[in-house]
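**User:** Hello, beginner here. Are you able to go through the protein record under this note? It all follows right here:
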Amino acid sequence: MSGWTTYRVVSDLRGLIRRGEALAGGRLPSERELAEQFGVSRGTVRGALALMRDAGELETRSGRDGGTFVSHKNPSWILYSQIGVSLGLHELIDHPIATPQGTLQSIAAQGDFAQTKVISLKREVADEEAQAALELEEGNFVYTLVRLRYSNGSPIALEQAQLPVELFPDLPRHNVADSLYSILRSRYNVRFSSITDSIEMACATDEQAKTLHVPKGYPLFLAVNTAYDAAGRPVEHSRDYFRSDAVRFVTTKQFDIPENVGSDSEKQEMQLVRM
């Protein structure tokens, strides 16, 4: 068989994996079964599997339950992972985007029991991301605060916040397990004017997986935000990782309705059209 055929089988295997058609736990069918399914020789299948193992997409396990499996490094691995962790939640926690509401308030609003573990609070030189987000000069210091948020005893969010030391020199004196925004408002008289927020997907690293009690590679929501005070000055920058099986992000948009729109029903209709 030609090299082209081998690469076609690689493409077919990737499609099979993405569609969730591997066996329980991410185990692939046997070489014979794959050869019959794709209409090629076992040698071609073996060559395709070897290419995917070299690329880190597959791994071979020996023993009675051995075989060829989807690797943890494969983006589709989570389709076959056995989570085995129950959050004890009946529904997802609604967490608003681009507002001063913290994770604790969102958990409490759900009626769940909220807890916080402060992992670390360090004074350190701002990295490149913090410099850019907080508009700091090279060599300026920030406080880096890492916290783990719990809902009903289960970890759901790993949060890292960075704040300029110059603006909040005595931050460690306060109870940083509480909402940072509440501390900035009540202790430093910060009035927030805006918050930029972006959400993307990330795969849990070894350390994140252990901390959040999920398998390595588990999909997490990564929320990156920067908060600005009334003068438009950035005062806090954070990177927060949320378990995707625990939290969903919500937003509310307000629409202006013209004053000359008459009845309530007409206003409602106008609102629906604009949405």
About this structure: The longest strand covers residues 114-125. Residues 3-18 form the longest helix (16 residues). The two ends are 56 Å apart (CA to CA).
